[in-house]
């Protein structure tokens, strides 16, 4: 579905369908650039045209947050969450056989991610783990990093750099690699795997209040995201419905 307010395509894939897409393209040696979008992501895109262009250049934008999922398709109301996506992907025999790189966050966090992955998916999993505590995506040697990825034959990268940094980084890197690999920013999923943060209970996520759960869990860090940015997202929703009503009027006349 296209969000008319941003001229941006959002794909209403369920998690199983999306895993099938990843496997299909992976078997054909086609790399993808994936963005998991939520209210925060789109509120940034609303006020930052370059960031919006980054999302437009991606292979797939899929709904991570429940409010966005409801906006694009009220009937299916699908959602692809980073933590669930990692677990489903590594439970897929073919995707787990690919050379996976988990890249981002601090040494302590990435060590926790490695422990989680090895505990749940076996020590023989074809995966590499690298920390990246301080990265400026606008001042990074992508050429050197791309050479490392080619040398190591990395096929799928899971990024944990935080939004919007990880999305900007993924865009630069995907273009440097000329689409050779699949890049999926998953942000907070690194913290969920490490155990430093808890994911919201399923029923809270289903009701669309995961943002409130996370705000109450870490108010000092997240208050701005879930006040100012949520207001921007509400504006986007209102504008989206206004444009849809206007378009329906035109087609019915």
Provide a descriptive summary of the structure in words.
With 253 residues, the protein is an alpha/beta fold. It is built from 14 helices and eight strands. A four-stranded parallel beta sheet has the order 6-5-7-8, sandwiched between helices.
Which runs of at least 5 residues are low in confidence (pLDDT < 50)? none
Structural class: alpha/beta
Strand order of the largest sheet: 6-5-7-8
How do the SSEs run, as a string of H and E? EEHEHHEHHHEHEHEHEHHHHH
> What count of helical segments does DSSP give?
14
The total count of strands amounts to 8
Number of domains: 1
Shape: globular
CATH class: Alpha Beta
What proportion of the residues form beta strands (DSSP E)? 5-15%
State the main characteristics:
253 residues, alpha/beta, 14 helices, Rossmann fold, four-stranded parallel β-sheet
Please give the structural blueprint.
Layout: E1 2-3, E2 8-9, H1 15-27, E3 34-37, H2 39-47, H3 49-56, E4 60-63, H4 66-72, H5 82-91, H6 93-97, E5 100-103, H7 107-121, E6 127-130, H8 142-151, E7 156-159, H9 165-176, E8 182-185, H10 189-194, H11 202-207, H12 210-217, H13 219-222, H14 228-252
Parallel strand pairs: 3-4, 5-6, 5-7, 7-8
Antiparallel strand pairs: 1-2
